[in-house]
Amino acid sequence: MKLIATLAISALAATTAFADGHQDRTGWPESFTVATASQGGTYFAYGSGWANLVAEELGLTGGGEVTGGPGQNMALVHTGDAQFGMTTMGPAAEAIAGLSPIAPGLAMTNACAMFPMYQTPFSVTALSSSGITSIAEIPAGSRIGFGPAGSTSDTYFPRMMETLGVEFDRRNGSWSDLGGQLQDGLIDVIAFAAGVPVPAVSQLEVQTDVNIIEFTQAEQATIMGAFPVAPFDIAASTYSTLEADARSVSMWNFAIANCDLPDSMVNAVVDIIMSDNERMMNIHKAARSTLPENWTKNAGVIAWHPGAAQWFIDNAGADIPADQIHSK
């Protein structure tokens, strides 16, 4: 069953050209969904927030849908079961190449890039009472929660842990469920791959003492050499638990659209999201990176939706090669 976040059915005030009907809406659907991820994670909070914002501004019915995360989102948007979604570059590249574990052999080329979201840092959290303060201190056989099955975290973090020599018992579940299991002693560690602050970690901080564990310089270098990630520091201001920036690695996230959606609709959506970063920051702090200049972070991984590409060309001076724009 689809769980749809709070719906914003119509605009209360026609503040833009989109809301007052001055734009060609030929072929627009009357409603839309944004494929997000599990509750308790950044994808759900961020995705449901911009879905509601777009629904209000455009006078449509829309909301966020709980999913298994980036890999499943590529499939849902590719097939048109969801109009919009969010994905991470690693799973997106695998899906486009037909290597997704969701549907092996299916090249998901009908999911198009729409706008840059933010970086997903990979971080580890344990209860302070566990005594675990570093990756090396994770005992062999520890029960580690890697998020929903098929998510970015579940796809990459187990392999990262194996690369670092950690022996573990793999567990899956929504971030909020895993947070509860950690607090109850049912698992020992959570390996998060989610935009920060992760709601589940923020909730844990309120209820108990936790250790947010960073990578050592050597561990960071090892991971960067083996996986499509970049260096990243989780700012000390992100969590009350942190006393200094925490060394991490990250992977970029992009919003995606079904490639068959009308150019005018996708252009309108991108304009709403990219034109007012303060409004996006009010939805989630991870949106500090949802900026026009970050269109470059796609780097040819996902073909651009023509409506989105035109917005970045017109408003961000983007030089997007024609062969990186989806041709209908």
TrEMBL record:
Q: Which NCBIfam families match?
A: TRAP_TAXI
- For this entry, the protein name equals C4-dicarboxylate ABC transporter substrate-binding protein
**What InterPro entries does the entry give?**
TRAP_TAXI
- Signal sequence segment: 1-19
Q: Does this UniProt record's set of keywords contain Signal?
A: yes
At the top level, the lineage of the source is Bacteria
> What Gene3D superfamilies does this protein map onto?
Periplasmic binding protein-like II
Query: What are the UniProt keywords, alphabetically?
Result: Signal
